[in-house]
Amino acid sequence: MKNNYSNIFIFNKKTLKKVINNLDNDHVAGLPTETVYGLGGNAYKKKSIEKIFNLKKRPNFNPLIIHYYDLKLAMNDIVINDNFIKLYKHFCPGPITFILNRKYNSKINPIACAKLKTIAIRFPKHRIIRSILKEINYPLAMPSANKSSNVSPTNAKDVFDEFKTKVNLIINGGKCTVGIESTVIDLTGFPKILRPGIINKNEIQKILKLKMNKKSDNKKIKSPGMMKKHYSPGIPIIINQKKHDGKSAYIYLGKKNINNKKFFSLSKNSSLDEAASNLYKVFRLIKKKGFKKIQIRNIPNIGSGIAINDRIKRASYS
Ligand code: TXA
Ligand code: MG
């Protein structure tokens, strides 16, 4: 059944068939995951990978994450190790992406991996993407469904706002529960978090029974996509703001001034997980309302606050 947006569909048996038909024919689709919406295409096919890069205007040196239902298909593409197995068993399916060495005979189109010897893989948890992955016999290359450097989409209409009808099929899976992109961890050597997410360093260290040391964390950017400016709503953002300037949109945690139309609370109870899930939604809302600038109050740098601070710092970079 259609709604007002002609290319947004609810998920049912009929639209599942439509998605699969779309993907089988090397087209791409806007699909929900628990983190953010993705722009998915057959990871084995050059044609679909090129479509993804072109639609997103993504630089070709920035590799895509390959999404699987479980280990069965993934084993054709990855060189596994103990750390990976431990994290996979504990967190998957879930919001975490692993960087591993790629098997030399993997069928993943090399353009998807930006011709690197490594590969980023993820096993998403959202029931809709899992039903789709279960039905197809290839993995999906799937970056966030936004134009390069924009804010990631956290509901189906956001995907429409990014690509209008250039993507012929978007599945509405509701608001993403996590709301920010998966944690990316490099497991090709000593484990190193390349992109913080809702699964945080402490939880990972507990499972791996090791400490990821600060020094190696700060070394040269190894994730080609972790560019300084990213996740930008397209208006200036200034962080660590104690006082509202009277005219900008003011992002904060808690209930203070909740009735002020210029105040946007990420979480009334100051929950950092809830704040992470609302961040991109609030960015998009503020932009729609026509504000010219965003001020953000200090966000505690603990738990999911680390991932929030990573994103707002990049969004504020000019
Ligand atoms: O939550 C998510 O991960 C979402 C949903 C749709 O699954 N996807 C997502 O994809 O955020 P994308 O393309 O927006 O971000 C992928 C990140 C980029 O920073 C990219 O550079 C990094 O993963 N990446 C991919 N392959 C890599 C590799 N071989 N080595 C290091 N970093 C890699
Ligand atoms: Mg992205």
List keywords for this structure.
single chain, 318 residues, DHBP synthase, Rossmann fold, globular, binds threonylcarbamoyladenylate, binds magnesium ion
Question: What do these coordinates show?
Answer:
This protein has 318 residues and is α/β, with parallel strands linked by helices. It has 2 domains: 201 residues, DHBP synthase (Alpha-Beta Complex); 79 residues, 3-Layer(aba) Sandwich (Rossmann fold). It is built from 10 helices and 15 strands. The strands form 3 sheets. Strands 2, 3, 4, 5, 6, 7, 8, 10 and 11 form a 9-stranded mixed β-sheet that branches. Strands 12-15-13-14 form a 4-stranded parallel β-sheet. A hairpin with a 6-residue loop joins strand 2 and strand 3. The protein starts with 7 loop residues before the first strand and ends with a helix. Bound molecules: threonylcarbamoyladenylate and magnesium ion. The site of threonylcarbamoyladenylate (TXA) has 29 residues, from strand 6, strand 7 and strand 11. Threonylcarbamoyladenylate (TXA) binds next to strand 6, strand 7 and strand 11.
